[in-house]
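Can anyone check this?
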Amino acid sequence: MAIQNNPVKPDNKFADFCDKGIVFSMCAVIFVLPASIALLDSFAALAATFYLLKKINRMVIDWPSKASRLNTLERLVFIWKGFAPPVNFLNRPLQIFTLAILISVIFSHFPALSFKAFIGKFTKCVFLYFSFLEAFTDKKRVHIFLYFFLASASITVFNGVFQHFIGRDLLKGHIVAGGRLNSFFYTANGFGAYLVPVIGLVSHFLYTVISRKRPWIWAVGLAFFLVLLLACLCWSYSRSSWFGFFGIFFATAFLDWRKMLCALPIFLLCVIIFLPSLNRTRHMQLVVYQDTGFQKGESVESVLRQGGQGRIAFWEKAVSIIRSSPVWGTGLNTYIKIIKQDPDVNKWWYAHNCYLQLAAETGLTGLACFLWMLFVLFRNGLYYCHHIKDTWTLTLLQGAVSGLFGFLVQSFFDNTFYTVQLGVLMWLLFGLIVGLTRLNPSFQGES
């Protein structure tokens, strides 16, 4: 379905007002995301309100001409389609994933808890994704969103640098614990996960600025910002986020091997700096918890279990829950309730793996639907990355794809997209990638 950026007609003034309201709300969401969950939820609700008002207004206008002759079932379908986002390649996978989530709620071990999470968390994120596609239909609006995103990231990073040198952050007074930065976030891992997609975007923009010989001030500014991002990533000492950082370079090589000529030296330099500092600060290596190697009489299995700071045990617990309810899971948002049924309090830990926790709560069905949605997203994202000619759109799309891939790699080792802030960030990245594919004039007939 083609996206036409025509001037607003008189009868579309209300729709244009709603679009502007969505743009304002979404920019506010991405700006306050690191610092305030309360403000994030408020602006997310505002964006959803504008989205619903626009859709309802459109259906009221179309109802006399399009729905008056339909039967009851056809009218329900008309209403369903009326609330749907613009046609895009992710609609069908998202619909099926939503159905899997809803079934897990119906068969939940704690239905009230699951229903609350479905409405308050999952539906909120889906509406944010819908809202992004609805309103960000031209480069100017995407530019505005990107400026707010990078401005927020800059404040968050400078706050992290301040925290490193002063010992506490500026806004919330978070004290550095164990030498690990968390900036506005509650944990260092959360801060590291947030940095990963920002690094993906900034590194791709830096390459484009240099290769296209843009004004040197842009190259210096982006290079300085990238150095601060990498420094904060290092000072978070979040090994899961470092793996996400490695994932960015894997995705970058897959997208455009020429960029690896610039990225590889940065990657090697970071590895040389990151790993020794990890040993000094947290007394651990990248995988194994302690630095002592094999002890006398110690088995290979026991050494492996030192890896990931107990993650092997957490993953085994998650697998046992999956086996107990393999098809539909125990229900959305029930993981902590289920593990607390174990009398051993030492096992009351989150899975530290979003995919295993998703499978535990929504079953293998929910996990399969989510992975299929990711497959469709990346397949189409890669396709457009190899066909888009517009430099700005291509750079932003490549940065978003590589940043999201690194974010999802990081999520394999933590509960990243189960947290409010980072879960919203993931769905906004979904919207950004799909929205960028709809901006390309070469594919007006495919969106």
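Reply from J.R.: I decoded it. Residues 354-385 form the longest helix (32 residues).
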